[in-house]
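Anyone? Bumping this.
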Amino acid sequence: MTVTVRVPTILRTYTGGVSEVAARGTTLAETIDDLEANYPGVRSRILDDTGELRRFVNVYVGNEDVRFLKGLRTPTGDGAHVSIIPAVAGGA
Amino acid sequence: MAMVAARKMRRRILVSSIVLREGAFGNATGLSCRECGHVQDLGPYYACPECFGPLEISYNFPAVTRESIERGPRNIWRYKELLPVPADIEESPNLEPGFTRLLKAKNLGQTLGIDNLWVKDDSTNPTHSFKDRVVACALSAAREFHSKVFACPSTGNLANAVAAAGARAGIKTVVFIPSNLEQGKQVNSAVYTDSLVAVEGNYDDVNKLASEIAGEEDGWAFVNVNVRPFYAEGSKTLGYEIAEQLGWRLPDQVVIPVASGSQLTKVDKAFQELIKLGLVEDKPYRIFGAQATGCSPVSTAFKAGHDAIRPVKPDTIAKSLAIGNPADGIYVLDICRRTGGAIEDVTDDEVRQGVLLLARTEGIFTETAGGTSIAVLKKLVETGQLDPALETVVINTGMGLKTIEAISDHVGVAATIRPSYDAFAESGVV
């Protein structure tokens, strides 16, 4: 299962400055494991010590926030697009 | 597709090397992570490289006196020594927002049973919302970072403020809004810029897109994304002004609308800074947050006693508060609990009633966010959460003419009559 992962600026030190990388995995957890294998250090930036998504990281599969899906168990089918984005927001 | 690939390649080659001038950010000294405390130099950064946590600006404040502030201009730059802006900020074209009126709200107070009530009316800013404050600080940062594009994702008010400030500053603006936004807010942006982009989705979708663009395009200053730490500091001026306009003292209670939660956290920061600088007496104050029930993740967490926010899909007429995944929500929880305040939410019908109540008691036409604050204020009194005997300030963040659709079906002419005195007398209007 080839997944395209969009990498935020602050993680590009791990990907040689590249903003989009390919990974393999049938779930988000597997995809992150595969990222870690190719870009060591990435996982601990995305996940906390308990293995959960860090509070200020938003991860999307397609256009959907995985917190509205199955979290790390969210399926990442062939051709899926994963975006990792710092949680920021405007508004009042 | 070829164009997209070419842009990505260019992004890989581009390396931002920004040379900052001396004093570019005034008394600001660095960016520290609010989660893990990691410190880094001032720059167009918004997330901690260690844990993705939000970044906060640190300062080394000089001695500041009430008199030195009072000698300043009647806008936010009177507090420039407390903001991340250069000493010569007034020389650069900007909208000069702030120092809006603090109105004694006697009629509204009597209606709600509050003895001493004030409305901080930020609808009188240049583009009619508090966003002019934060955008002025973001514009200064964009200038110092030599940004070529000034941009934002927005629920409307921010789009208006960015487009207008960019026009005055002579910098290219691009603003992104949800495509279902009220017409008033669309026109109020489009009039200043030819680059208003309507995105099919809600605010959180627009925000995600903006974050992705900020990561791909070099030289863009997204006010509430990559220059967010500088931008957010502008909201402190609401807190400074409330204290100064009350005669250099803090109110007992403040009611503030909550979208991302940034404004509420910055009013608290402002009060704490004024205490530390010895500009006001150190006294207890209570901060209350206001949300619409259709987008109330922070209120829900507060009532449930949770420390984490569960994101929601917004469904409310208070579109400027419709942020389903509020970045500062957990800090809002901390502040409201620490100060003995609370967070409440109200239905869309109550929001409309809040708009009408403020208009008909004080002559202020607020937008739906302000209607939310007024309705929450009413609910807080009725439920005994807010003490009606204490001095209270409610913040009106924006202007009702921008969200006229929300209220237009609920108000209108009382009678249509022939042009004669008899017809008027028979109409029953008076």
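Late reply, but here is one note on the structure posted above: The interface with chain B takes residues 6, 8-10, 13, 17-20, 45, 54-58, 60, 63, 65, 67-68, 83, 85-92 of chain A (CB under 8 Å).
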